[in-house]
Amino acid sequence: MAGTVPTTESARATTTRELATAGRAQRGPLLPILHAVMAEHGWVSDEDIAVIADVLNLSRADVHGVVSFYHDFRRTPPPAHRVQVCRGEACQAVGAQALYAAAQARFPAGGDVEVGEVFCLGNCALGPSAVLDGTLVGRLTLERLDTAAAGWTA
Amino acid sequence: MTLIHEPDLGTPAVANDHDVTLTIDGRAVTVPEGTSVLRAARGAGIDIPKLCASDNLAAYGSCRLCLVEVEGAKGTPASCTTPCADGMVVRTDTDTVHALRHGVMELYLSDHPQDCAGCARGNCEIQALAVQTGAAEVRYGRGGASHLDDTADTSNPYFTYDPKACIVCNRCVRACGEVQGTFALTVQGRGFDSRITAGGTDFLSSECVSCGACVQACPTDALTEKSVIQLGMPSRTVVTTCAYCGVGCSFKAEVQGSGDDTRVVRMVPWKDGGANEGHSCVKGRFAYGYASHRDRQLSPMARDSIDDEWQVVTWEEAITRVAEGFLALREKHGVGSIGGISSSRCTNEEVYVVQKMVRAAFGNNNIDTCARVCHSPTGYGLNHAFGTSAGTQDFASVEQADVMLVIGANPTDAHPVFASRMKKRLRAGAKAIVADPRRIDLVRSPHVEAALHLPVRPGTNVAFVNAMCHVIVTEGLWDEPFVRERCEDADAYLAFIAGPEHSPEATQDVTGIPASDLRAAARLFAAGPNSAIYYGLGVTEHSQGSTMVMGMANLAMLTGNLGREGVGVNPLRGQNNVQGSCDMGSFPHELPGYRHVSRPEVREIYESLWGVTLQAEPGLRIPNMFDSAIGGSFRGLYVQGEDIAQSDPNTSHVEAALRAMDLVVVHDLFLNETARFAHVFLPGASFLEKDGTFTNAERRINRVRPVMPSRVGKDEWQVVCEIATAMGYPMSYAEASHIMDEIAATTPTFAGVSFARLDAEGSMQWPVTQAAPHGTPTMHVGSFVRGLGQLTETVYVPTTERANRRFPLVLTTGRILSQYNVGAQTRRTPNSTWHPEDVLEIHPSDAELRGVTSGDVVELSSRVGTTRLTALVSDRMPAGVVYTTFHHPVTGANVVTTENSDWATNCPEYKVTAVQVEVVTQAARANAGAGADVPADAVAGRP
């Protein structure tokens, strides 16, 4: 219901407002703006949602619904490192399920490495596949993952 | 009577002159082209099951239960999204369809609580459909993933959202958007994770306005009124009319028990209600609990002096004291020494008997109404221009409007159900021009944006409307044939308004509206083709309130925007029965039907019926009563349902007047502020206990039906009759309908009105005459009631209340959604959850200059008084203007308002008070300077 109307905005909100304002003229502006906010801040905060809703004259619920529909629009700050294991059928057939479980055990939730799942990276011939910090890796094993992780923590 | 279940045809009605005929299950069915198969079938009594469809929402096609077979078509289309076509052959009852529905229903049931006995409603649509499709057993077992462990959101004071029972059909989300226009709900996540959410937060802290549309839309137990959970389902329905604002929504009061044991379980908006068509707001839908609040005073009380304690007395003693007191005062101080004030909260029948008591038993015309302080200029101005003291359209007219000029009204807060209609029309492409000092929600809120916001300075409305008319005349945009044929004094007016002093360039420094914006607004309004004016108290409560009403009438006449749908001059009435209380002869100069007391032929009607001689001179208006009381000539006052000590301007003056009187009688639900100065208190009946009629802003006479007997043992009209009788003028009616019969017999515009006719028709809009036996939705078609429309030279005269060095800011006032007027009702309900106190909104630069930050307690002073409020720094305000609501007595907004009033009607100038603001106590500043501490739900521009 009607709330307060404060008159100051954080630096982050100002940046988001600039991104949203720059993107508002295009057709279907919400998704490109959310991508821009992800690129700038790495995640979408409540404040970002309120600002984007304001600029596009949508409700906060409208924006929240869209953000929550896409897994890649994060609502929490990103971890230091991300492992996204493919769980598509082809990779499952070559041991992705076990690899995923092992990766989850190796990097427990809440640490600075986040293990997630994706469904098919189009790299089926070279499964199991994963994306490590944005880089596609084929024929992934727990050992290779450890090697990569050693580099992160070093 | 039992519980009424209104039929739901599944998809909205389609307006189309062209019909198509199809065959459904072997029966020929004819419907307007564009109608869905679902609606056609349900209309013909063929019950196709459905979950996601509802006839107040666009078809959605998600639940897959309304599947049918269509000859020659592939597959089994959803009947809700399939339009009927000529010659189409539809089968709804085949084995294929049954098997599909059975399978779909099993899937719903596999993730839905099976314990119907543990469900508050006990008979949701899921349960009914499980029976209908024969899918009570689920093949998939109960062990799989489900949402049955989800926890409920109980944050809203009136309803819960329990995701366990939710089937994510989206009806609530769509109702919030399509019907209410708030868009506070969404589906979060996807696939199995999909859940309904109020934007990712709980309902209470979300954008939700608690209108109840989602609860009504929910086909399961997921969204349920807490009262239903607490009390169980109601057992019978009484259709009645809401007693809050002038929209006059029809409701089904759903109750348990009977007689004195009647308990209201919930209020559900009535689909056949002409004003609301099944929609509601947080007040009418939920805030009825005041009627059973412990503060309600149920016994008559009396005391000799206002310094004494109240003593409970019998009705007999109370009425005797009142009657003897008034008689003694009249004897000693003359016939004009007593009077009465009727209420716009009461029924037409109650108001009628009060004015009759004053005129026939008191023997004078000292009768006035609280409409004096709100819409009296509407009555005066529209009567002057058109010949009727009422708005020209019905609410549905807005659906034909292309341009809406909204001035001095904040419909989303004060008339929320009508605002939803406006927003729907705006989303469909109509344009809005909002003239208001404050950036109200209609200026910009989700999915709605006004074409122009004209931040008119308080007190300069007439200069604004004259500039609009000036542009339209000087740029040749006026409707010459309309003006020449239907209006009088056109040449004088055209010459007047063409004067350069009215140009936007000449007036922009006065009004604060940039000339270019004003020219754009005038051109947009003139272009129409259907342009409608909607206005509220921001027009009337000014020293030039009546002039402004005439100015808007000029604008409508100049552009030919009268006498058809989609146009007109439309007052948004504040209280439920402002229109009716004025119609019923509550003004000191008018008998019922707005007929002046000086007209002998009108007096003669009542003199012969009532057997008395009526005074031909108008009596005292409310402000005159106060002045005369202080002067000593006015000694006794009966006040029904109005808290004059809180709601009338310049509180200290009002209190002095009340103290000066020998007998003040308060007839009300609560011991209000005025009762502090009363000698006799007569307990009133709530709207749930009344039998009568209310007349809303569109002249619609709606029935108010008693849900329960009067909790105080007497109807209010009965008490009034007994006072008159005890004063020696016998007055009695066997029932309320007989009062309406007397009104109809004596008032031409009500000639065809009776309770029986209203019950048969649902509602009727006056005039109801032989020529218009079903009432008159649109007035002034073809010609005006007064013949020719009166164009009036509306000279702008600035108010004497002006900002100066001592009082450099201008205070204006308004309402907020959750509260109502002086809050006597809403403060006694959980609505205060949303608005626990009134705040003073102040522009950032005005705040900075005074060192004010949000949360500070500030002193607000004018030349007549001082009060304290909590400040809210807000860029909704223009610089130089501060704003507050007046819902809480502690606010004392009227301590500071002045005794300025409308030149014609004495309607107080609440909307303009020169003030100063100073900090008294600074809010805790622990977080001072930390901009990031602004709550995320409260970023600028997102109220």
TrEMBL record, chain A:
The keyword Membrane does not apply. One of its GO terms (molecular function) is metal ion binding. Keywords: 2Fe-2S, Iron, Iron-sulfur, Metal-binding, Oxidoreductase. Binds 1 [2Fe-2S] cluster. Its EC number is 1.2.1.2. The keyword Transit peptide does not apply. Its cofactor is [2Fe-2S] cluster. InterPro entries: NADP_DH_HndA-like, NuoE-like, NuoE_N, Thioredoxin-like_sf. This is Formate dehydrogenase, gamma subunit.
Automatic annotation (TrEMBL), chain B:
It is found in: Membrane. NCBIfam families: Fdh-alpha (TIGR01591). InterPro entries: 2Fe-2S_ferredoxin-like_sf, 2Fe-2S_ferredoxin-type, 4Fe4S_Fe-S-bd, 4Fe4S_Fe_S_CS, Asp_de-COase-like_dom_sf, Formate_Dh-H_N, Formate_DH_asu, MoPterin_dinucl-bd_dom. One of its GO terms (cellular component) is membrane. Residues 96-134 form the 4Fe-4S His(Cys)3-ligated-type domain. One of its GO terms (biological process) is respiratory electron transport chain. SUPFAM superfamilies: 2Fe-2S ferredoxin-like, 4Fe-4S ferredoxins, ADC-like, Formate dehydrogenase/DMSO reductase, domains 1-3. Keywords: 2Fe-2S, 4Fe-4S, Iron, Iron-sulfur, Membrane, Metal-binding, NAD, Oxidoreductase, Repeat, Translocase. Its cofactor is [2Fe-2S] cluster; [4Fe-4S] cluster. This is Formate dehydrogenase, alpha subunit. Residues 157-188, 199-228 form the 4Fe-4S ferredoxin-type domain. GO terms for molecular function: 2 iron, 2 sulfur cluster binding; 4 iron, 4 sulfur cluster binding; formate dehydrogenase (NAD+) activity; metal ion binding; molybdopterin cofactor binding; NADH dehydrogenase activity. Residues 235-295 form the 4Fe-4S Mo/W bis-MGD-type domain. Belongs to the complex I 75 kDa subunit family. In the C-terminal section; belongs to the prokaryotic molybdopterin-containing oxidoreductase family. Residues 18-96 form the 2Fe-2S ferredoxin-type domain. The keyword Membrane applies.
